[in-house]
Amino acid sequence: MIARGLMLGPDQPVVLHMLDLPRAADALNGVKMELVDAALPLLRGMPALQPLAAVFSFIAGCKAYFALGATTNFETGVVATSDEAEAFKGVNVAILIGGWPRKEGMKRKDLTAKNVPIYKSQASALQQHAAPNCKVEQRFWWWLTPRTPTRSSSRSSPPGSPAKNITCLTRLDHNRALGQVAEKLGVPVGDVRNAIIWGNHSSTQFPDASHATARTELGERPVKELVADEKWLKEEFVSTVQERGVAVIKARRQSSSLSAASAACDHMRDWILGTPKGTWVSMGVFSDGSDRVPEVLFYSFPVTCEKGEWSIVQGLQIDDFARSKMEASGTELMEEKSIAINIL
Amino acid sequence: MIARGLMLGPDQPVVLHMLDLPRAADALNGVKMELVDAALPLLRGMPALQPLAAVFSFIAGCKAYFALGATTNFETGVVATSDEAEAFKGVNVAILIGGWPRKEGMKRKDLTAKNVPIYKSQASALQQHAAPNCKVEQRFWWWLTPRTPTRSSSRSSPPGSPAKNITCLTRLDHNRALGQVAEKLGVPVGDVRNAIIWGNHSSTQFPDASHATARTELGERPVKELVADEKWLKEEFVSTVQERGVAVIKARRQSSSLSAASAACDHMRDWILGTPKGTWVSMGVFSDGSDRVPEVLFYSFPVTCEKGEWSIVQGLQIDDFARSKMEASGTELMEEKSIAINIL
Any chain B CB within 8 A of the CB of A227? Predict the structure, then answer.
């Protein structure tokens, strides 16, 4: 998708850096062969220009890491490596969607313990080798504390400070919410917008359609009115989105794949190329205190993006029902953060 | 890729029909869930218009069938079924890339015997249920004889007769050939064009770079001159492309996946939307006797496409080396055809 222009636009040449564990080096090289075999015109090194893209594929046989970056590999535009320094060298965009997968019966605490060392090593390599202001899209490091929190950055730090450059993925949940509303209303999903995922990328997340709208013959209308079924919006919709990943695993006997890749692509595209006017998307970003979310947390908010910068949507009415759901997810994030800090 | 507009253009809504065996119904439904979860704006049924797309996924755990077609499934634009009649109903484009996979130690004759019954059942469903002039892109039915051969169709039959509407995939081999030339020359693959795959989609195919050109600072130049290594062009290049599938399997321990999907998409896109001026691609089409290829065979030729019709490139100089390679692949196709006819 990246090398076809779906993430960075149809005219943006890309160089893909793919990172995987040493034991997966052969398979990763096979992916590189396939990228060459696909004869993708956008996939190329351009020593004379500043190249823009790279992908890191990370292990465990199941998930992939991506990142955009510079390379001198003119011929193929693909770097396949198990060396973090090489993988992150000069990258402008890093998509870190790999990590220790959650196995059946594993507690979140155990999962965090497995992922903290991966984080430490990669964060250090990113800091040393990536291009300045590299944008980082990631799945597993919700508990980290960026060097410069957003609020102080808006006062004195330069733009592009770390807190601004790191976002967490909740786009799959966001897209699932749009999909469920579209199915309920029997309308094309492209006509529905402004669902929100609040909180954690876990089952405590709060999928909220109370601000969503849908295009109808009578113009843009609130989903709440069109659905006219408060029970569905507060119960079935919420639990369907929260538990969709489990339902997909049950059907496919594998975790989400095409929808996860599609969401990772949508997230970065909107961050870099901007959200359409009047449309917001959900992203985990470091809280600036908006909506009473503590300023020490990454938390999924509705955001709009312009010129490569995200901003939290302000001024939304939040009722008591939403507030209690949002706080429950925030409490879970606080607990996870304290576990991670203890391990760190 | 189809639902992102990469096959039929960025503004073409599509409906995907996915076909799989009954034992894979759950997994197929999981794919449908993921397509809904990806919130793809182009993926939608539009009862008021003639919808254009559908995908058939076929199993054996490894490959997928695709086809474009009509549906009344307004909400999701996805039909997941194990019923051929439902799958092929009203489809405008059918992408048949599934079939019995070749296992280690299996002879081609055994493979054909496994695939003929699949062909019989699907061909009959296509004929009964697909839209008129449905375009069929396929991998396994090289040995079939269309109702109306190309030559007579050019004299008296209407356009869109069966021979014109069925093409076989050699695009992956074609793209691999471009990739190998680009690597050899150290140029972006988008600057190389007009490689040819002659013959069968098998190891007897003849990858031919003798008519290919590459864009250089001095303009468009013959690859033959730029490579200046006849031995490489006649030996290493040919065998690398022929054996690339095996090399990918060796590295990934799985057969080609992203490159195969990418090639299937390129093939249909170029067929429907046209090849760029001055550029040809390779497709298996029913021979009209061009280049002395017998008129009873599907055979991979260089073709250009315009307004949804392919034409074999005429007037290429073919030397004795190429002729002998082309004839060897034609002989193999004749043998395979006679095996298939005996089974039929």
Answer: no
How many CB atoms within 10 Å of residue A85? 11
Count of positions (residues) in chain A = 344
Q: Helices B320-343 and B108-129 meet at what angle, rounded to 10?
A: 70
* Nearest beta carbon to residue A37 from set B41, B172, B187: B172
**Is the backbone of residue A99 left (phi > 0), alpha (psi -120 to 50) or beta?**
left
Q: Is residue B162 part of a domain?
A: no
Cross-chain CB nearest to A183 (options B26, B29, B76): B76
In chain A, residues with a C-beta closer than 8 Å to the C-beta of B175 are: 37-39
Chain B touched by A243 (CB under 8 Å): no
Flag whether B196 is in a domain. Answer: yes
Q: Are A13 and A46 in contact (CB under 8 A)?
A: yes
Rounded to whole angstroms, the Cα distance separating B73 from B94 reads 18
- A85: CATH: 3.40.50.720
Nearest to A290 by CA among A309, A310, A270, A274: A310
Instruction: Please identify among residues 70-89 of chain A the ones whose CB lies closer than 8 Å to any CB of chain B.
Output: 74-77
Asked if the Cβ–Cβ distance from A251 to B175 is below 8 Å, we say no
Domain identity same for B322 and B179: yes
Same domain, B45 and B117: yes
Q: Which two tokens stand for residue B193?
A: 């064009």
Give ipTM to 2 decimals.
0.89
Same domain as B328, residue B274: yes
Q: Encode chain B (344 residues) as per-residue pLDDT tens digits.
A: 999 999 999 989 899 999 999 999 999 999 999 999 999 999 986 544 334 443 333 322 223 333 444 344 445 789 999 999 999 998 999 999 877 777 777 777 788 888 888 888 888 898 899 998 899 999 888 888 887 644 444 444 444 568 899 999 999 999 999 999 999 998 999 999 999 999 999 999 999 999 999 998 889 999 999 999 999 999 999 999 999 999 999 999 988 999 999 999 999 999 999 999 999 999 999 999 999 999 999 999 999 999 999 999 999 999 999 999 999 999 999 999 998 888 88
Distance from CA of A31 to the nearest CA of B (A): 7
